[in-house]
Write a structure and sequence with these properties.
alpha+beta; 4 strands; four-stranded antiparallel β-sheet
Length: about 260
């Protein structure tokens, strides 16, 4: 896997999903309703979207959309897989969506993006017998816009808040690092004495590099500090002194050398 920070167009994926399930006519209404300001307010929480949409009556209609959430054991499997890959974890902890994130969900036997309408339950207080009605369709349209602005909202709809996602991922990373340290040998074997190198050869090759340097990843000071804020303080760090205040100058100072 070669994770990057260029995710697919989730908004376009959402539109194709709706069209594939025969909602083309309703989508023509949702655009008009959304653009004319009929959606009064909308709230996206864990696997649920609630909204008030102004229709032809004085009282706004209440809309609710629910997406099937993943059970805790599925999330545990997914986060363990992400935590085992340092680059992928860094991208996620920086609040970005890796390009190949869906393959990890597929390996866990689920799909991050909904595949059928059975995974989405919709309801509206309007008298329209059709489901989805034009009020629900308006929320569908706004949801597509939200996917374009914040792809991580798909995790929220699958039952995982951004805060718990980053916190659980960080804990997984720390646990894996501690396990790796415990597996380290208590004593290192004595190294064989190296052959004495020719000083002239050492000086001649001192500044030469090989292709391995292309594999190194350098973070800017801004990125490093942002990641530091996302990670937060370690579990064993006391309340005083403040972890961020202590570590941020160090991160900034070190990053100036790269």
């Amino acid at each position: 896997m070669n994770p990057t920070t260029q995710p697919p167009d989730w908004s376009e994926r959402w539109t194709r999903f709706l069209l594939a399930h025969g909602l083309e006519n309703r989508l023509q209404h949702d655009l008009r309703y959304a653009q004319q300001g009929h959606v009064l307010d909308i709230e996206i929480s864990k696997n649920c979207i609630t909204a008030r949409v102004q229709g032809s009556r004085p009282q706004p209609y209440l809309v609710e959309i629910r997406v099937k959430a993943f059970p805790p054991e599925i999330w545990d499997t997914i986060l363990t897989t992400i935590a085992s890959q340092a680059v992928l974890s860094a991208i996620m902890l920086n609040g970005e969506m890796p390009e190949n994130i869906e393959s990890i969900f597929h390996e866990a036997g689920v799909s991050l993006f909904p595949q059928t309408l059975k995974e989405i339950a919709t309801a509206c207080s309007c008298p329209d017998s059709a489901n989805p009605c034009k009020h629900i369709a308006a929320i569908f349209y706004i949801l597509g816009q939200e996917f374009a602005k914040n792809p991580l909202v798909i995790f929220l709809l699958r039952g995982k808040t951004r805060e718990s996602l980053l916190s659980d991922l960080m804990k997984k990373r720390m646990a894996l690092q501690q396990t790796a340290l415990l597996k380290q040998p208590t004593s290192l074997p004595l190294a064989e004495s190296p052959e004495t190198a020719d000083p002239a050869e050492v000086i001649r090759n001192y500044w030469q590099t090989d292709d391995k340097l292309t594999d190194l990843i350098f973070a800017t000071a801004e990125t490093s500090c942002q990641l530091l804020h996302n990670l937060g303080k370690p579990p064993d760090w006391p309340d005083d002194p403040d972890f961020i205040e202590v570590m941020e100058p160090i991160y900034t100072h070190v990053s100036n050398y790269f």
